[in-house]
């Protein structure tokens, strides 16, 4: 069980690796979120490579933060 906070991502490891997400998500309180289909996010990132590279760095940093917390 893991709690995440504002600005965190869910599914970034799955997106970066292409593997299925090995966990489910339960929401304990009201949240605002954005959900993109993988092909849409990949297209968005390839349309603007600068934004795509920045988003990959952000997702990677979020993943590293979670791995260090284990």
Number of strands: 0
Give the CA-based shape. globular
- Can you write the helix and strand succession as a string? HHH
Instruction: Using the CA coordinates, give the radius of gyration.
Output: 13 Å
Helix content: 40-55%
Question: Can you summarize the main beta sheet?
Answer: none
Structure description:
With 70 residues, this protein is mainly alpha-helical. Helices cover 53% and strands 0% of the residues. The longest helix has 21 residues. The radius of gyration is 13 Å and the shape is globular. The termini are close together.
The gist of it:
This protein has 70 residues and is mostly helical.
Give the key terms:
70 residues, mainly alpha, globular, 53% helix
SSE blueprint and pairings:
Blueprint: H1 12-17, H2 38-47, H3 49-69
């Amino acid at each position: 069980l893991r709690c995440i906070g504002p600005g965190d991502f869910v599914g970034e490891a799955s997106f970066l690796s292409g593997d299925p997400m090995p966990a489910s998500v339960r929401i304990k309180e009201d949240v605002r979120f954005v959900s993109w289909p993988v092909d849409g996010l990949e297209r968005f990132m390839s349309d603007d490579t600068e934004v795509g590279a920045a988003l990959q760095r952000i997702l990677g940093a979020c993943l590293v933060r979670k791995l260090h917390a284990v």
